[in-house]
Design a protein that fits this description.
By secondary structure, the protein is mainly beta. It has helices at about 1-10, 55-60, 75-80; strands at about 15-25, 25-30, 35-40, 45-50, 65-70, 95-100, 105, 110-125, 125-140. Strands 2-1-5-8-9-4-3 form a seven-stranded antiparallel sheet. The protein is globular. The two termini are about 15 Å apart. Bound molecules: flavin mononucleotide. Flavin mononucleotide (FMN) binds next to strand 2, strand 4, helix 2 and helix 3.
Length: about 170
């Protein structure tokens, strides 16, 4: 049943992004698929983040985040920023990035980016939903196709996170 719930949820099409966070000179970034448009006016995105991630404290305190959109061929970046193996290291070291207007890192090679100011948060089970008011952004590379979450397979290890039935709390 877990496999079929995972397969079902993976039919919800998603992109793959590197979300950058910053607070008082500290920075981090993590791969995220749970990014979606929430409002047109004002322009708002929603982001689901596991509060146990190192990035969460910086996001909560810094109240800003960036979204770097990955191209289909950038699986190395999705892996680097998306696996806990890399967490002990400075994941940004050796990667080309620059600080956005509010300090959070933007990947230079992203095909597009958005910068957000946190506009609200709420619990959503084992994650927190963070709303970000978009204050800046640019489409850097119009030709490269964006990566889709389905193309990353089980890179995030989420197969083991899905419940075994819909009734499971
Ligand atoms: C393809 C992919 C998608 C992911 N999507 C999310 C997501 O939407 N939200 C989230 O909290 N973690 C997501 N993760 C997991 C984090 O990227 C991962 O746990 C990361 O190591 C957290 O980094 P940090 O502890 O430095 O903040 C995803 C990982 C991958 C590989």
């Amino acid at each position: 049943m877990r496999r079929s719930i995972a397969a079902l949820c993976r039919r919800l099409t998603l992109g793959v992004y590197v979300v950058g966070v910053a607070h008082e000179g500290k920075r981090d970034a993590f791969t995220a698929a749970a990014v979606a448009p929430a409002s047109y006016r004002p322009l708002v995105l929603s982001l689901a983040i596991n509060p146990e991630h190192h990035s969460y404290g910086l996001l909560r305190d810094g109240k800003t985040f960036t979204v770097s959109v990955l191209a289909r061929h950038q699986i190395d970046l999705a892996t680097r920023f998306g696996t806990s193996r890399a967490c002990a290291q400075d994941k940004l070291a050796g990667v080309d990035w620059y600080p956005g207007r509010h300090g959070a890192p933007i990947l230079t090679d992203a095909i597009a980016f958005l910068e957000c100011l946190v506009a609200g948060q709420m619990n959503a089970g084992d994650h927190r939903i963070v709303l970000g008011r978009v204050v800046h952004g640019d489409l850097v590379n119009r030709r490269a196709p964006p990566m889709t979450y389905a193309e990353t397979g089980n890179l995030d290890g989420s197969m083991d996170l899905y419940p075994s039935s819909f009734a499971d709390g």
